[in-house]
């Protein structure tokens, strides 16, 4: 039975204290971070433990999602159909390029890319190629279908950065728990959304460094160095870059 919406009584506060102290004991006795090479699944790691690895963290965010009409049943049905079509294919594209989707945030996605064993392509290359394919399929197929159905097309942005993260399982044991990414790489990739305009791909220096020279020279331009982030090694500003390339139309 839920508590009354009044201030908790002393007995409940004491129960909370006991609960927190017990959690501290369990977390400190079990918690550990091991080095890894692949993105762990939820059941691969125990509660309060994590796996550290180098990865590209991708965020996708639908632009102006909150401005979509969503009051009536019909409007909510329209949004449901739009999200179902859009995210089904976005998730498939991420997986096609070796990525792992961590979560769907309602109007966005978060995913990881790591370099596979024996792969000649970096995680950064795979993630950028996935982003290009996501924009390509949205522009050529998904949005035309939505428009023909009388639904509003989807405009979105993608941000990415690469570096060391710890993928951990946190929450309440045997109740609600899930996978989260810990580390500045994930934080930066998320914060980059504030600098990204609709229909753009924004990457951090960690992704830039893993791209082929030709891609960097032709398709990358500095977006801003006034990001509020600095490189630990030298204290210089950490830049964000726009990736301007897009796939050409298929020829066969």
In words, what does this structure look like?
With 252 residues, the protein is an alpha+beta fold. The protein has six helices and nine strands. Strands 1, 2, 3, 4, 5, 6, 7, 8 and 9 form a nine-stranded mixed β-sheet that branches. A hairpin with a 5-residue loop joins strand 5 and strand 6. The termini are far apart.
Q: So what's the overall shape?
A: globular
Helix content class: 25-40%
- Which class best fits the helix and strand makeup? alpha+beta
The SSE string, one letter per element, is HEEHEEHEEHEHHEE
From the alpha-carbon coordinates, what is the Rg to the nearest angstrom?
21 Å
Nearest-integer average pLDDT = 86
Query: Mind describing the biggest β-sheet?
Result: 9 strands, mixed
- Residues in β-strands, percent: 25-35%
Number of helices: 6
- pLDDT < 50 stretches: none
Total number of beta strands: 9
Distance between the terminal alpha carbons, to the nearest Å? Answer: 63 Å
Q: What's a concise summary of this model?
A:
The protein has 252 residues and is an alpha+beta fold. It is built from 6 helices and 9 strands, in the order H-E-E-H-E-E-H-E-E-H-E-H-H-E-E.
Layout of strands and helices, then pairs:
Layout: H1 10-30, E1 32-35, E2 49-62, H2 73-96, E3 100-104, E4 108-113, H3 123-148, E5 156-171, E6 177-182, H4 184-191, E7 201-204, H5 205-208, H6 213-219, E8 220-224, E9 240-243
Parallel strand pairs: 1-2, 5-7
Antiparallel strand pairs: 2-4, 2-5, 3-4, 5-6, 7-9, 8-9
Helix pairs in contact: 2-3
């Amino acid at each position: 039975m839920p508590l009354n919406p009044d201030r908790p009584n002393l007995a409940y506060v004491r129960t909370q204290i006991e609960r927190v102290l017990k959690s501290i004991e369990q977390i400190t006795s079990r918690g550990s971070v091991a080095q890894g090479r692949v993105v762990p699944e939820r059941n691969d790691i125990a509660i309060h433990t994590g796996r550290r690895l180098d990865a590209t963290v991708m965020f996708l965010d639908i632009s102006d999602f909150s401005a979509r009409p969503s009051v009536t049943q019909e409007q909510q049905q329209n949004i449901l159909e739009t999200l179902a079509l859009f995210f089904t294919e976005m998730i498939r594209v991420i997986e096609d390029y070796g990525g792992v989707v961590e979560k769907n945030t309602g109007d966005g996605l978060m995913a990881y890319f790591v370099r596979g064993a024996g792969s000649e392509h970096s995680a950064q290359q795979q993630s950028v190629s996935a982003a290009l394919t996501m924009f390509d399929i949205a522009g050529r197929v998904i949005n035309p279908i939505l428009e023909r159905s009388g639904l509003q097309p989807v405009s979105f942005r993608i941000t990415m950065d690469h570096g060391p993260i710890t993928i951990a399982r946190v929450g309440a044991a045997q109740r609600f728990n899930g996978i989260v990414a810990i580390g500045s790489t994930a934080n930066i990739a998320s914060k980059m959304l504030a600098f990204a305009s609709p229909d753009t791909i924004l990457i951090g220096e960690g992704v830039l460094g893993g791209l082929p020279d030709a891609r960097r020279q032709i398709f990358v331009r500095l977006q801003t160095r006034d990001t509020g982030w600095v490189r630990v090694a030298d204290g210089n500003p950490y830049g964000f870059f726009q990736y301007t390339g897009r796939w050409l139309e298929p020829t066969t």
